[in-house]
Amino acid sequence: MKRILAVLLAGIMTLSVASCGSKQLGKGTPGDDSAVLDLRGEPAEINSMKTADAPGGNVLRMCMSGLTKLDANDTPVGDMAESWDVSEDKKTYTFHLKEGAKWTNGEPVTAHDFVYAWQTVLNKDTGAPYAYMIYTMIENGEAVYNGEKKPEELGVKAIDDYTLEVKLINPVPYFLHLASFSVFLPVNQKAYEEIGAENYGKDADKIVTNGAYNIKEWKHDDHIQFVKNKDYIDADQIKIDNVKYVMMTDQNTKYNAWKANEVDVINVNGEQREALEKEGIEVKTYVDNGSWYLQFNTEKPGLNNVKVRTAIMNAIDTKALCENVRKDGSVPATGITPSGIKVNGESFAESVGNLVNYDPEASKKLLDEGLAEEGLKAEDFTITILSEDGASAQKEAQFYQEQLQKNLGIKVEVAPMPFKSKIAKMQSKDFDIVMAGWAPDYNDPMTYLEMFMTGNGNNYGGYSNPEYDKLLQDATKETDTEKRKELLVQAEQMLIKDAPLAPTYFSTGVYVVSNKLKGLTRTGFQEFDFTDGAEIVTEK
Amino acid sequence: MSKQQVYFILKRLLYSAITVLVLVTVTFFAMKLLPGDPFATAKALPPETIAALHAKYGLDKPEIVQYFMYLGNALKGDLGVSLINGRQVTDIIAQAFPVSFELGIRALIFAFIIGILLGVVASVKRGTAWDTGAMFVALIGVSVPSFIIGSLIQYFIALQLGLFPITGWSSEMSKVLPSFALAFACMATISRLMRTSMLDVLNQDYIKTAKAKGLSQKAIVWKHAVRNAIMPVVTVMGPLVAGVLMGAFVVETIFAIPGLGKYFVQSVQTNDYTVITGTTIFYGTFLVLANLVVDIIYGLIDPRVKLTGGKE
Fold it and tell me: What is the ipTM of this complex?
């Protein structure tokens, strides 16, 4: 028995020594024309008209090409569109498409493919979650969606095969940015009808694409293998021939797989970031434009008072939250619109200024004043914070609980629950405070500000201020971009002053890349993009 | 097969069908009590879009109508489409179940062989270091959950020693660690059961007779003792198969294996009604049949057990 044990131990030690030498941390996956990246989950379906999930959006960015695409700085540049003209009232866009682009079934990419896709999105049978993006923006959209007008009456027309005219209801300064979004991508009518709406985008052989990469293989819940599309209109700019997106969900598994050089890019959490930095590995970050906050039910006794809400907002040490709890590079929020959102080329958050000021003493005073106005006392005031049931969300909720109890002397309970249950509670206004977050649909503060308008479907806390609504309505109609920006700045300042929410932090994406991969784009609008010059650098 | 045996099997099949029907009915109405909407996202969709989606998937009809429509379709083999990814539930099962099944079978073979061996060794060498060692392994297996075992062997054997890949389900090598991680608990149960049962058998008179006849230790253990001692193990194989196939979710997640466990668990979190009922019907039917098969095998191994429903 002892002898067997001794032999076993000796064997294990020899193997460990041998393997330590062979495993170079950060070397990356084998192969000098391929990269492997963690997609973080299986895409729902790869049908641009219906995609609403992040993995699906990432896959579409690889294999589909729209009117515009975002460059490495999130600035829209022409993709299928060679150029465009904008009318004086900024409500009509005329796109001139590149000639010679092809679908993977050999058909040419034309203006008709865009018209077909947008009309199909507005057909309720399609079941497109993002249909509202088209019908709230394009002329006659709502009437077409509700069947009151024919699809042909939608404000999008193919003037000829390579000229597309789009008529908007109001000027939309970020329309070129939006034109790169999945719901605005073209669809090849012949392919869609041949494959059938119910099957389209469900497997690798059931989708026809026009982008930089073709989907070679899709093994569900396992991986998607892309190969460079040699017929892509800008194929000479694509430098990596093979890209594999693997689907891993467990955070430790990703970490081990990256260390074992089975994957080139993974996102890491706060603890893993610390561990990697200790080993001398460079960890990268990007502003992912996630804005996180506590949303108040403004109809609950106590929380209906703006002083009480403001006191709660300013009683939370968000710096400590970012540094000691999240530890992932998140930064304290200064308002609702995060720093990565730009208007006229400048960070909107900077124009607005810092609206959140941690001050426990002043907050306690303000709270007592507010509660007294409502006939309440701090020691009798109990609130519940709804959070999701993941470990990090609960840790965060406990931090808020501790801060509010300590700094304000009120009683705080935490109610963790699954995501869908939380949404259901929010919809039925069955909450005091809920931990919520928002990722932008487009590069404009409006994506955050509009959800607090009276009656907006996302305005779960029931906030209503006619002056705020008017500022946003005026901004929507304003054609002068500077004046529009000024209106939006005023709106955000008014919003945080009214405090239907307490901004907490702007989140950051944290990731590691193997040494072999350079030039991968990661921004708040492009979780991954291989088409801005990503390349493989082989070590000599 | 006698007439009585055929009658027994037919009767059990009928009971099985009723069990599955009750299971579907309870699942169907219970899942509708789950708070939340399958189409709810962090961004609220306009009510008309939600209404259009509900109409598209028939969720706007009364629940009882939905239930009978679902039953009718299920009898025709149509389990509907996933509300989350739009794929046919039957396609999802057809793609993911073979992976889970293979993982489960590999784990069972692992568990069965090693479990029996450990149990036999422990009982024959009762009171020695072999016995203590084997039962220590069994104790770990019973008390440490598979996600700990999985994470530990992934870290030490795959990452530190580099002997196996960390993730995936493609090469033979990639299948070893997940099968082992899944097998561990099951193996422990089998070895403990086998040890107890062997000790019991080894004290029986006929073993003493065999010894007196001068048979070798090997022949006594493997020919005479094991065959009888294995009966209790076969009895628990039904529930063990269940445990292995249903408990795979954690192991599948740790080793990034594209199995069915994920759908079974996540469908509940995402209110993906069709996938919830589809996977439940599938697993339910599978388990009911697995138990039936075990009962039949039991009769074949032990002639004393008659497949007659106990009225002899």
Answer: 0.85
